[in-house]
């Protein structure tokens, strides 16, 4: 008999799980956790109850009494019953993922299944999915909500990322690195700053900054709209100290020192890139 369209708001299945912790029957672990003051360990589930004939039996895909198929997909490890979503069980992740499997790979360092287009094209952060989402502080690894990989390698729930984008947030909540390509926005900042000169008392005023994108430290002209990193051009910077008011001679000397510092940092980055390519 084919799978019946029943279940709960979370899953389509024709059986209930017997919680090993309290021995109560719930359609799924999420329904259980919402009602009880403890969590169900789905891996310890041993018995299920058929929703058609109410027969309690060992966890399996077909009812041994009436022959109904509890779900289109069943994992005997996770005890996941659901309609077919091209799921597959990832052994390193330890849980089932929504596929199809051929479109995903498991990154060993990140310890997470990622889309194939990110293979060799993302920054690895060790065991990154074992951290909670820094926006909602909820679990990412076993969440039914997909994860969004930021350029810095950190993860957010896709829904949390979308909300952050809508409210104007553009930085990773963990490391403050830009959450997407901001080049177009930085170009707009350049134009706005060029059209908004500072008052005469702030002409020649500089400030020390640290760039949240390239981690460079530099001394740059102060402007209320933003301070531009002299190394990578980002405005995602933070002020490191108070304003520095310079006389004309001192200003010229500072500019020369700043130019020398930029050249040294550029040479260092090029050297690091060459070493990475050799590796």
From TrEMBL:
Residues 70-132 form the CTCHY-type domain. GO terms for biological process: protein ubiquitination; ubiquitin-dependent protein catabolic process. Gene3D superfamilies: 2.20.28.10, Zinc/RING finger domain, C3HC4 (zinc finger) (3.30.40.10). Residues 133-175 form the RING-type domain. One of its GO terms (cellular component) is nuclear speck. Keywords: Cytoplasm, Metal-binding, Nucleus, Transferase, Ubl conjugation, Ubl conjugation pathway, Zinc, Zinc-finger. Residues 243-279 are annotated as: Disordered. This is RING finger and CHY zinc finger domain-containing protein 1. The gene is RCHY1.
